[in-house]
Amino acid sequence: xxxxxxLPLLLLGQGADPASERGVDCPGDLPPAxxxxxxxxxxxxxxxxxxxxxxLGHHYQRDEVIQxxxxxxxxxxxARDAAARPQAPYIVFCGVHFMxxxxxxxxxxDQKVILPDLAAGCSMADMATFDQVEDCWxxxxxxxxxxxxxxxxxxxxxxxxxxxVGRHGGVVxxxxxxxRALDWAFAQGEQVLFLPDxxxxxxxxxxxMGLSLDDCVVYNPRRPSGGLTREQLQNAKMILWQGHCSVxxxxxxxxxxxxxxxxxxxxxxxxxxxxxxxxxxxxxVGSTEYIIKALDAAEPGSSWAIGTELNLVKRLANAHPxxxxxxxxxxxxxxxxxxxxxxxxxVWALESLVRGEVPNQITVDAETAHYAKxxxxxxxxxx
Length: 383
Ligand code: 13P
Ligand code: SF4
What we know:
Bound molecules: 1,3-dihydroxyacetonephosphate, iron/sulfur cluster
Low-confidence stretches: 1-23
Mean pLDDT: 92
Number of helices: 16
Strand order of the largest sheet: 2-1-3-4-14
Oligomer: single chain
Helix content: 25-40%
Strand content: 5-15%
Number of domains: 3
């Protein structure tokens, strides 16, 4: 069994760490953010590229970027839509690294996926490395349970981890289909190893599947056998990886209590990556796509405190001036890696393509892609 150490901290955009989701140099000359012609330049480059480029934008992207997206969506919708334009040779992914990897896996061999800033990783995805997950599987084998555990990985994981899950008969899930993925997994085996977001795993198991908190254990990849005894591993229904989202993990129960006191009748709507006590205290829980639909369907004059990334909440507040839309917690800010994709990087990526250069291409090696696709296809086929 290999020993695992903390990943060295890299400053975003400096140096290179190909084994991690973060921190890779941005080659080329970026236009200055102060250039007043940036919007016109992006528009002109996109027009020049026509149907040869397909721009996908996650809901957490900045407004300045999302205005150029051909399709917007949550992780699930973008994974499904990535293959919607098979004739487009270039897919510019305005999101984070694991999403671009999934797009590369799900699109045609001739299509090239471009991430405008290679430093747009995901801290949650970084919390599960391939070696750590292999060590975990060894620990499950030592406890005599590997053949009855089905691995389920959240979309927010590297292609390596998705490949591992595909190789071991598991499935990928997103925040919009986690319950269906767990229903499927428990039909295949008796226990689930849920990677890498403990909160999505716990919230789905307890609030949607009727399991108890005692059915869940947390596997700490920095401790031998995850810090769990053989009995704990054998008796758990859900073995939750000790990972979390650094944005959603900061919303607090105190903020829910505070907003309820301050705004009578407020609806508290949070993402399932939030901690269990926050989700428990909320009125509604769902993926970003669910949050958008809930606001679309809300009564004029109603009040909404939303616990998800700030770019999306600001956009919802602007889109619904007839509703009182607010951010749930003052202590939480933007997702810094989603925000790495800004207009200068998008302009740089599009103008490079116009010149016939393919910048920041994201590729997944054939073997990893094969097994990751098994787990992604299993997700796309969930009933
Ligand atoms: P969804 O897009 O599945 O709602 O996930 C949110 C998220 O944190 C993406 O990084
Ligand atoms: Fe990762 Fe959280 Fe940012 Fe999503 S919001 S990309 S899960 S750090």
